[in-house]
Amino acid sequence: MALVECIVAKGHRKQAVAQVRMKPGTGKYKVNDRPFEEYFPTEALRGYIKQPLVLTDTHAKLDIAATIVGGGQMGQSGALRHGIARALVKHNPSLRSILKNSGMLTCDSRVKERKKSGQPGARKRFQFSKR
Q1: DSSP character for 113?
Q2: Do 12 and 84 contact (CB within 8 A), yes or no?
Q3: Considering the entire predicted model, what is its pTM?
Q4: How many CB atoms lie within 10 A of CB 81?
Q5: Which fold has domain 7-101?
Q6: Order of strands across the sheet with 62-69?
């Protein structure tokens, strides 16, 4: 029995961290031991996650198993997309320029700003009264 090459990469977005394991296969995706379609129910999120695979035309050639921790649905989908893009570059370094130019290798580092003390929110201020 031949040893199958398995590529591991991590992706980040907001508070979510995705660990992606990619190997040659038929295009099956699993997230946290659940089917991909069940974990991400909306077509918009699934399309967003599959962007690096569709762009590089590898969506039917690779099997992906991912473990995602933290964050919400949008953060988790961004982390998974970032992890898939990084795994694709490890798998085939010639895809780096395509993914880099489309912005999929850049970690979107925007996170929620902390609430400041003495104020109702991060940016919101109480109404000013001169008298």
Answers
A1: P
A2: no
A3: 0.88
A4: 23
A5: Ribosomal Protein S5; domain 2 (3.30.230)
A6: 7-13, 16-24, 62-69, 29-31, 34-35
Q: What tokens were used for 98?
A: 């395509």
Overall residue count recorded for the chain in this entry: 131
**The pairing of beta strand 62-69 with beta strand 29-31:** parallel
Residue tagged 């967003």 (tokens): 48
**Residue of 31, 33, 43 whose CA lies nearest to 80:** 31
Where are the chain's structural domains? 7-101
Q: pLDDT tens digits, the chain, 131 residues: what are they?
A: 444 688 999 999 999 999 999 999 888 999 999 999 999 999 999 999 999 999 999 888 899 999 999 999 999 999 999 999 999 999 989 999 999 999 999 988 899 899 999 999 999 999 999 98
Residue showing tokens 């798998």 = 91
Find the angle CA(33)-CA(58)-CA(69) to the nearest 5 degrees. 30
Tell me how far apart the alpha carbons of residues 101 and 28 are, in angstroms, rounded to a whole number.
Answer: 27
The one-letter code for the residue type at 102 is S
